[in-house]
TrEMBL record:
It comes from the Eukaryota. It is found in: Membrane. One of its GO terms (biological process) is cellular response to growth factor stimulus. This is Serine/threonine-protein kinase receptor. The chain crosses the membrane at residues 122-143. It comes from Lepeophtheirus salmonis (Salmon louse). Its cofactor is Mg(2+); Mn(2+). SMART domains: GS (SM00467), S_TKc (SM00220). The gene is sax. PROSITE patterns: GS, PROTEIN_KINASE_ATP, PROTEIN_KINASE_DOM, PROTEIN_KINASE_ST.
Length: 520
């Protein structure tokens, strides 16, 4: 395949053009987002799939103009094949925003026959619809009556003895409890009430679940929905309410929680999903265990950590990530799962100081047996601040599951950095103020191009504090962190290697060994 050199520049520095090599096609882009901000870029499409995405064709030999309108904005691409062929000074023209107007009503033709209908035709036109209506009503009533008889007949087949126990009720998928007792633990049939999510679909997943939950306070908001504290049969639960436009994310997250063998103490516990209507608006509910301390992001903002507390957070989060990434083989095995949106806001802190991983709306699953890679088809994208270099420069192999696992490893390295900033070192027992990764390099809400310049072009990483070198435990963690945010994805440590290195750090310190002997 012939490769070309192309002009490359980013807004607003397109006056200073650079040259990139190894392109399948050269492109010039003109983008206007939903807020009216305009961005212009030139560059190289180095991979065939990127050329297909940018130019809608992998084999066009001349110049091709491709434009599109979406509700989130408009964009136009001009693609070409040739050495430095994207040297035009006039940018591709953006498509206009379409204005949709209601169509004019069609006139109803009046024929002489319609004007002079006979009385018999008029009577027929009135009686026929009425007759059809009553026939349909009778048919529906017959079907409902038949279904009711079958249901009652099925109930009578199973003898129910409320005094001898509930084994027979279990066969019906129901549970009987005394009035006033909590039924949430009964639902799980005396299973562990850790934050495990259950092996497959739990009991009592009904579309009436939303009517049994009393919502309290809103404890979190995001661009994709809200999280509310609720009470279900006397137990506190967390209710994640998705906007109707994010139904794909709700379905994907529900599918992940219903995956066989997903249960793990470091994965957020799942109770049920439901679809309900509030004030004529559709709401999609996902009900999970409630953790009062909130997210790791909130926890780090509130308090500093000792080395022991930081290690407990790191080890427990790492254990959850190991469980996700690992495929379990068997009659009912578990696929490998890559999270794709790891960050401190998607890690929740339990009362014992350990953590659970949440929010699987972007998760990718992979099964080795049939080499099936399932990528969610929704408009949601990950958090730009935590995007790995290969995503930002669009060099990721989207058909290889290991690529997505390495994306999680890079994001986990940034979580390590956030935790270490709030960790009190043994030298002076002081910690730094909480900060997000790259807080000195980018805006509070950075754009894709801004992150690409910092991470890929300038090859910057979050600051390494001098006080970390003085603490022997933190110094070893920093070494692991650096290997996890390497610009080359294949050079990053796999999750099992990270866990082994963390375990060696704990074993080398008698104090940590005593504390973490059980969880390692």
């Amino acid at each position: 395949m012939v490769r070309y050199s192309c002009y490359s520049c980013d807004t607003p520095e397109c006056e200073k053009e650079r040259v990139c090599d190894g392109a399948v096609q050269c492109y010039t882009s003109h983008v206007r987002d939903s807020e009216g901000h305009v961005r212009r870029n030139k560059g190289c499409a180095k991979h065939l799939e990127h050329a297909i995405f940018y130019c809608s064709t992998p084999s066009y030999d001349g110049r091709r103009h491709h434009e599109m309108y979406q509700t989130s904005g408009q964009y136009a691409f001009s693609c070409c094949r040739g050495h430095l062929c994207n040297n035009e000074t006039v940018w591709p023209e953006l498509p206009p925003v379409p204005i949709v107007s209601a169509p004019d009503p069609l006139p109803v033709p009046v024929s002489p026959e319609n004007a002079s209908n006979s009385p018999s035709k008029l009577i027929l036109a009135i009686t026929c619809p009425i007759l059809v209506f009553f026939l349909l009503l009778a048919f529906i009533l017959f079907i409902m009556h038949r279904a009711h008889k079958k249901r009652m007949k099925g109930h009578h087949r199973v003898p129910v003895d409320f005094h001898e126990g509930s084994a027979d009720l279990d066969e019906l998928g129901l549970r009987a409890t005394a009035a006033g007792d909590s039924t949430l633990r009964e639902v799980f049939n005396d299973r562990s009430m850790t934050s495990g999510s259950g092996a497959g679909q739990p009991f009592l997943v009904q579309r009436t679940l939303a009517k049994q939950i009393v919502l309290g306070d809103c404890i979190g908001k995001g661009r994709y929905g809200e999280v509310w504290k609720g009470v279900y049969n006397g137990d506190n639960v967390a209710v994640k309410i998705f906007f109707s436009r994010d139904e794909d994310s709700w379905k994907r997250e529900t599918d992940i929680y219903l995956t066989t063998l997903i249960r793990h103490e470091n994965i957020l516990g799942y109770i049920a999903s439901d679809c309900t209507s509030v004030n004529s608006c559709t709401q999609l509910w996902l009900v999970t265990h409630y953790h009062p301390l909130g997210s790791l992001y909130d926890h780090l903002n509130r308090t500093s950590l000792s080395v022991e507390e930081s290690m407990k957070i790191l080890i427990s989060t790492l254990n959850g990530l190991v469980h996700l990434h690992t495929e379990i083989f068997g009659t009912k095995g578990k696929p490998g799962i890559a999270h794709r949106d790891m960050k401190t806001k998607n890690v929740l802190v339990r009362m014992d100081g350990t953590c659970v991983i949440a929010d699987f709306g972007l998760a990718v699953t992979h099964t080795i047996a049939n080499n099936e890679l399932i990528i969610p088809q929704n408009c949601r994208v990950g958090t730009k601040r935590y995007m790995s270099p290969e995503i930002l420069d669009m060099s990721i192999n989207v058909n290889h599951f290991e690529s997505y696992r390495m994306v999680d490893i890079y994001a986990f390295s940034l979580i390590i950095w956030e935790i270490l900033r709030r960790t009190r070192s043994s030298e002076n027992n002081k910690a730094n103020e909480f900060a997000l990764p790259y807080y000195t390099d980018v805006n509070p809400d950075p754009g894709f191009d801004e992150m690409r310049k910092v991470v890929c072009i300038d090859n910057r990483r979050p600051e390494i504090l001098s006080r970390w070198e003085a603490d022997p435990v933190i110094k070893q963690i920093v070494k692991i962190m650096k290997e996890c945010w390497h610009e080359n994805a294949t050079a990053r440590l796999p999750v099992l290697r990270i866990k082994k290195s963390m375990k060696n750090i704990i074993l080398s310190d008698p104090k940590l060994h005593l504390i973490f002997d059980e969880i390692c």
